[in-house]
Amino acid sequence: MSLPRTLPDVACGRLSPADYARNFADAHPPLTSAQARLEAERCYYCFDAPCTTACPTGIDVPAFIARIAQDNLHGAARTILEANVLGGMCARVCPTEVLCEQACVRHTQEDKPVEIGLLQRHATDAHFSKPGAPLFKRAAPTGRRVAVVGGGPAGLACAHRLALLGHAVILFDDKPKLGGLNEYGLATYKTVGDFAQKEVDWLLSIGGIEVRTQHSLGRDMHLDALVRDHDAVFLGLGLAGVNTLGIAEPADAAARAAVDFIAELRQAASPATVAVGRRVVVIGGGMTAVDAAVQSRLLGAEQVTIVYRRGPDGMSASLHEQQWAQTNGVRLQHWGAPLQMLIEGGQVRGVRFARTELRDDHLQQTEESFDIAADMVLTAIGQNFEAQPLGLVLTLKDGRIQTDAEGQTSHPKVWAGGDCRHGGRDLTVEAVEQGKVAAIAIDHVLRA
Q1: pLDDT at site 433
Q2: How many Å apart are CA 210 and CA 304, to the nearest integer?
Q3: In angstroms, what is the C-alpha Rg of the chain?
Q4: Is 305 a domain residue?
Q5: Confidence (pTM)
Q6: Whole-angstrom distance, CA of residue 238 vs CA of residue 222
Q7: Which domain CATH number covers 86?
């Protein structure tokens, strides 16, 4: 394949202000009051509802939907947030199509489930816009201090529940803002209006949580000291490491990790300040790959291709996410593994891929290859847990922290949850549940 001679071309400000405003508006606008009531009335209010069982945080879905139908949005929000304190964000980013909505009885009968995610957002948005009386009140102080390391979904959920139970919490995070992937790792169009920080501010309003940002484990504090100085420690460290392609990667800003590209866009004052290539290749098959690819298009890239080593069924991005990418003009190229970055004059001009295939259920590279022209390459092949900052020896399994069902690690004073914990599907909603369950377990131990 002969690559174009016009590369590279990476620039910002490709579009008009009106284009940026339109492209980065809310991708899924909220329901109106009338729409919400009509949708709520579609619910069968099942006893032992499969949608509730399918929710990792166990939200009583029929109960909150019934309250929406009764125009009791405060009560609906309480039902949601008692189970999932980050229910507002989860309503925006949870893959409801494979969780609660997949289990909806309407789905099996009519192939159109109740729009549970949108109803959950309707209720929580209504509460946050007019909070009224606080939903939660702290218990009397217990005199116990717990360190929570990591201000992502797991750490926030753990800190809130511990504070609610009366414990004093010191919440550490290595970033300037709390929120973890909710703040730094999601597509901008999924959570507009600085919602992640508004939700964090509301969560902290429970009181009893001291926040220390830009504190990194292994640099500013150490696990052995945290264990010594606190009654318990919860680790919600996430995945700080980024997997590499296994091929030579140039020291070029146009070849970078997709998570860094997404974080830059999320923190930018305007999308017009974020540079993007005219031709972008995204390597990977998960939600991060889709978010990076779609946002590249929305920033003005003319050609964006996601390349994945297996077929569509092997992608961790849901079918809904794959269709969203294609709707936004992203091309999906399957059965390709990166062989070589094509460099000219020290700059990226494309990527060469080996064609892959399954042989006896094993993925194999063939002798065929193909090139895709690119002036920007984003890699989204997963992240990994960096265990070195732990200091104390905790038992790991497959590179992540091993725990029991309640999140307790091999050290009796240390719990863990979220992406750093072994097992699970690396979902925001699962991280919230793990943080909540660990907080309840810590409380039981501290009161024993």
Answers
A1: 97
A2: 43
A3: 23
A4: yes
A5: 0.94
A6: 17
A7: 1.10.1060.10
